[in-house]
Design brief:
By secondary structure, the chain is of the alpha/beta class. The protein is built from 14 helices and 15 strands. The protein folds into three domains: about 80 residues, Winged helix-like DNA-binding domain superfamily/Winged helix DNA-binding domain (Arc Repressor Mutant, subunit A); about 140 residues, Nucleotidyltransferase, domain 5; about 180 residues, ATPase, nucleotide binding domain (Nucleotidyltransferase, domain 5). The chain is globular. Pfam families: HTH_24, ROK. Belongs to the ROK (NagC/XylR) family. It comes from Faecalicatena faecalis.
Length: about 400
């Protein structure tokens, strides 16, 4: 009985520490007294908790609070020591894989990009990732004991509980036991998650999700992905599926999608689909400016070149009317689908990210189409993510940090 009571008290302390950490992550450095007011604990309890976490290297004192001088004890600010641990973040995309080392705030320490090699067996490619991760840690003098864990994000259907990629669209067709393979190789905890759901978790921890309970996330580029947050929790559908807006059917009996169905939104608005349609009209007569810029070489009308153009933020070339029509058609289709989804979900806000929506002109046209359907859909309601520039590591960092640092771990 006494042992059980001791365990229960320890669990209460763990949960209280978690509450303090979440508060500091949300609001920044605070005094112990102000923390106590916010979380509903006594100042004495908070002082004990903070002292223990400072000794553990989890918290650090940040100096005296700047306020009017008053009689009594000075307010010393405490904050999370975000550099106390490191997260290895891996994002496997169809063309490239991004390997990063980040602190607990989601700041990049160092990173590298390798080609996603789908021509070899998944286990062989995971061995390449393992090697690159270990080299990255070694180059940055990060010791194994400083690694909190490894987060791996991948498109498609993921069983997070078992750490299995069930079907990684455009990468692997078979199930891959990523967690089992990488946990043994890296000697640290590993979490595997769908890339869009992981990014949404990043927003919950570091971005818009700190103030909104019900959110819709939409990514465009190279494909289309989405995630739904309800009551500050990421929605997961049947068989571990995310809210796959990219596979919303918009054309009955349409083109075959890589998901196995026909007429999905991605078959019309993915960068691959856009390039395919531009190439179909490419000629000196129909696309004179594009033809001149590429020297008549259709091979330069590629997905990689299109991606580079979108990421550069360049304006649309208005001289080729047919090319502009194709882009407008894709933007309108995406906007219409999202407006319909928002009508059903009625989120607090919708968060946009992905390199297509990073392009200011594309985002402007997208918003114009949204407002044609509903004039209340302003940029305050449909927002660009503040974490877009961290897209390839923030999600993987967040899933590890949230589970192993901010969430309680009862005995």
């Amino acid at each position: 009985m006494a042992r059980q009571a001791g365990i229960n008290l320890e669990n209460v302390k763990i949960r209280n520490k978690s509450t303090v950490l979440k508060l500091l992550n949300r609001k920044g450095a605070m005094s112990r007294k102000d923390i106590a007011k916010e979380v509903g604990l006594t100042p004495a309890t908070v002082t004990v908790l903070c002292t223990e976490m400072i000794e553990e290297g989890i918290l650090q004192e940040k100096g005296e609070m700047q306020e009017e001088r008053r009689a009594g004890r000075r307010k010393i600010l405490v904050d999370i020591a975000y550099g106390c641990k490191c997260v290895v973040a891996v994002s496997i995309e169809s063309k490239k894989t991004y390997i990063s080392a980040c602190d607990l705030k989601g700041n990049l320490i160092s990173g590298k990009i390798i080609k996603t090699d789908t021509s070899i067996a998944p286990i062989e490619f995971l061995k390449i990732i393992e090697k690159e991760c270990k080299v990255l840690l070694w180059e940055n003098e990060i010791e194994q004991r400083s690694v909190l864990g490894m987060g791996i994000c991948i498109p498609g259907i993921v069983d997070r509980n078992r750490g299995i990629s069930i079907r990684a669209y455009g990468i692997w067709k078979e199930e891959v036991r990523i967690k089992e393979i990488m946990q043994e190789a890296m000697s640290c905890p590993v979490i595997v998650e769908n890339n869009i759901k992981a990014f949404a978790e990043g927003e919950l921890l570091y971005g818009a999700g700190r103030t909104g309970d019900n959110l819709l996330f939409v990514k465009w580029g190279p494909g289309v992905g989405s995630a739904i947050v309800t009551q500050n929790q990421i929605y997961e559908g049947k068989d571990h599926r995310a809210a796959e807006i990219g596979h919303y059917i918009i054309e009955p009996n349409g083109e075959l999608c890589h998901c196995g169905r026909r007429g999905c939104l991605e078959t019309k608005v993915s960068t691959e689909a856009i390039i395919k349609r531009i190439r179909s009209i490419y000629s000196k007569e129909h696309t004179p400016r594009l033809y001149e810029n590429t020297g008549g070489d259709i091979e330069l009308i590629s997905e990689s070149n299109f991606t580079e153009w979108a990421e550069s933020g360049n304006e649309l070339d208005m001289s080729d009317e047919e090319v502009v029509k194709i882009l407008h058609k894709s933007i309108e289709r995406l906007a219409r689908t999202i407006v319909n989804m928002m009508t059903i979900l009625a989120p607090d806000s919708t968060i946009l990210f992905g390199f297509m929506l990073e392009n200011e002109e594309i985002r402007k046209i997208f918003m114009e189409y949204c407002q044609q359907y509903d004039s209340t859909y302003t940029e305050e309601y449909i927002q660009k993510s503040e974490l877009s520039r961290k897209i390839y590591y923030i999600g993987a960092t967040a899933i590890v940090t949230r589970q192993y640092f901010f969430e309680p771990k009862d005995s």
